[in-house]
Design a protein that fits this description.
By secondary structure, the chain is α+β, with helices and mostly antiparallel strands. Helices cover 33% and strands 23% of the residues.
Length: 128
């Protein structure tokens, strides 16, 4: 288990669409529907569709819960790879520095391997 290289962008473009890709993969909505959802939410909230506020609202609408990383003093934040491995029974969107990535079933899915990046926040939904 671990990194799965996949670009859900329907044109296979490598553009600044990590929020769309992460939401699309984690929710199963697909890129086009995730784009429309984030665009509508961003418009209504008067923020960018890739802003954390818009992403969070989209994920909450899709039944996800908000998680927070609590780091004991002297410890480090989990990496994307560690988080995915430790939570194989959740679909998640993970927030790392300047990026969002989807994970589920012990894997993280992205166009590049961000497995060594530290997780700051996450949204999760149990896999049934």
């Amino acid at each position: 288990m671990g990194y799965v290289e996949h670009n859900i962008n329907p044109e296979n473009k490598k553009v600044g669409d990590c929020a769309i890709r992460a939401v699309a993969v984690a929710t199963g909505l697909g890129w086009n529907v995730a784009y429309k959802l984030l665009s509508e939410i961003g418009f209504n909230l008067k923020c960018a569709m890739s802003d954390v506020e818009a992403v969070e609202e989209a994920l909450l609408r899709c039944g996800f819960s908000v998680g927070k990383i609590k780091v004991p003093k002297g410890s480090s934040r989990p990496t994307v790879a560690e988080f995915a491995d430790e939570h194989p029974n959740w679909y998640c969107v993970l927030r790392v520095a300047n990026h969002l990535v989807a994970c589920g079933r012990g894997n993280y899915v992205d166009t590049w391997d961000c497995g060594d990046k530290s997780v700051y926040k996450y949204w999760y939904k149990p896999i049934h």
